[in-house]
Amino acid sequence: MNSQMFECARLTIDACPESVFKFWTDPELIAKWWGPEGFKTRVKAHDSTVGGSFAFEMTAPSGALCVMTGRFLRIVPPEILEFEVNDHCNIDLPAGTEMQHKATVVTVEFLRNGTSTQVVVSQAGLNESYRPLAATGWSASLAKIAALEIPVV
């Protein structure tokens, strides 16, 4: 496994870190944006405390289903959210992409930039061939958040 941290996505969102952070910790909000373009997500479990677990049922545009699971490792509101992904969504992979079987660690940073927030998503432990897929998925997810009406916290 490659344990090197890989920056998957970076986007500035027109909202304060407190508001953007809530999109990563509120199950109702997560269901609105989680996953690559065209995917639908149902939150089956979500305990956003250190050591707490999550399980997301994801449906691809093809109708294929997968469940992504993991646990939270570090939570520093509204600056950092770090979690381990144990079960990855290995459905409808592009040709040449090796399935991601080993756990990875995702670190999300929420950097205040005036009245906006720069969100940086990095992931350690990705297979080399899975990295472009992760980058595309995280970029699409961040764009979905930016397109939603973000409540002020």
Characterize the structure shown.
The protein has one domain (5-147): START domain (Alpha-D-Glucose-1,6-Bisphosphate, Chain A, domain 4), CATH 3.30.530. It contains three helices and seven strands. The protein is 22% helix and 41% strand. The termini are far apart. Strands 1-7-6-5-4-3-2 form a seven-stranded antiparallel β-sheet. The longest helix is centred in the last third of the chain and has 17 residues, at 131-147. It is globular, with a radius of gyration of 15 Å. It is of the alpha+beta class.
C-alpha Rg (nearest Å): 15 Å
So what's the overall shape?
Answer: globular
- How many independent structural domains? 1
Per CATH, the superfamily is: START domain
Main CATH class: Alpha Beta
Low-confidence stretches: none
Describe the strand arrangement of the main beta sheet, using strand numbers. Answer: 1-7-6-5-4-3-2
Strand content: 35-45%
Assembly category:
single chain
Helices, by number, come to 3
Quote the CATH topology: Alpha-D-Glucose-1,6-Bisphosphate, Chain A, domain 4
Brief write-up:
This protein is of the alpha+beta class and 153 residues long. The chain has one domain: Alpha-D-Glucose-1,6-Bisphosphate, Chain A, domain 4 (2-Layer Sandwich). The protein has helices spanning 17-25, 27-33, 131-147; strands at 5-13, 40-46, 53-59, 65-76, 80-87, 104-113, 116-124.
Secondary structure layout:
Blueprint: E1 5-13, H1 17-25, H2 27-33, E2 40-46, E3 53-59, E4 65-76, E5 80-87, E6 104-113, E7 116-124, H3 131-147
Antiparallel strand pairs: 1-7, 2-3, 3-4, 4-5, 5-6, 6-7
